[in-house]
Each structure stands twice: as C-alpha cells, then as structure tokens.
Design goal:
single chain; alpha+beta; Rieske Iron-sulfur Protein; four-stranded antiparallel beta sheet; three-stranded antiparallel beta sheet; 3 helices; 10 strands
C-alpha cells in the first residue's frame, strides 16, 4: 500500500496536461436536433466545424456539377461518408486568408466568405472567388446514425 502511494504520483505526472488532452481530444456531436437544410457550428481544436444536414436538392445540385469545371476538383461523394450523404462536415475556415465563411449564403447554397468574396457550394467546394482550395474536411466518423465523432 505504501509503495503504491509512493509510485502513483510518479506515474500520474507522466500523463499529458489536461489542456493538452482537451485541445486534441475527439468530440462527439448529437445530430438529432439538426433538421434537414440546417447546420450547426461546433469547435474542435479551436477551429470552427460546420455540420450541415443537406437537403436532397443540395445533394443533387452538388453532384450535377462537372468535376472538371471546379478549381479544386473533387466529387461530392469523396467529401461525405458513404451512407450518410446528407451530412457534410467541414472546417469552416476560408482557404484564401483564413476568414470564417457564412453558411447558406452565396450563389451555391453553401458557404460565402464576406471578406474577399469566395463562394463554396453545398459540398464545401470552391466555386468562385480567390480561395485556392475546397473547405478542408476534418477527420470524423459516425459512431451511430445520430452521432458523429470529430477527431
């Protein structure tokens, strides 16, 4: 018992600091309250993450775009998880100068960056403006049909 009391503080001090764990720890988000056509913004590692419950119309429009016409060519299917096509999860930081775009704005029913006019579609792909790349996708997975884990 005495040895355990002596050794425990030595082992415990080797664990990472609580702020370090919190900064990189995965987060789980309940998708139940997000209605079709709506989105929420959460924060992971200090970055805004948009989670959008896309409508069938938004998905169809995103998939109808000729990929070769995009400045940063990527299919809609490559930007979502199979079987969860309605859920788009992107890091909400404009790839031009790091501004925060506004969801459901612009010409493509996606994201609009008011700083310099970059416009992204409902798949988070750059369609117009100075941004050089699509909105990045964070590492994420579905832990159930109604819950996503980011990180």
């Amino acid at each position: 018992m005495g040895a355990a009391a002596f050794v425990w503080p030595l082992i415990s001090q080797m664990n990472p600091d609580a702020s370090t764990v919190a900064a990189g720890a995965p987060i789980e988000v309940d998708l139940t309250p997000i209605a079709s056509g709506q989105d929420i913004k959460v924060f992971w590692r200090g970055k805004p993450i948009y989670i959008m419950n896309r409508t069938k119309k938004q998905i169809d429009e995103a998939r109808a775009v000729p990929v070769a016409s995009l400045p940063d060519p990527e299919t809609d299917q490559a930007r979502v998880k199979e079987g969860h096509d309605n859920w788009l999860v992107v890091i909400g930081i404009c790839t031009h100068l790091g501004c925060i775009p506004i969801a459901h704005e612009g010409n493509y029913d996606g994201f609009f960056c008011p700083c310099h006019g970059s416009q992204y579609d409902s798949s988070g792909r750059i369609r117009q403006g100075p941004a050089p790349a699509n909105l990045p996708i964070p590492p994420y997975k579905f832990v159930s049909d109604t819950k996503v884990q980011i990180g």
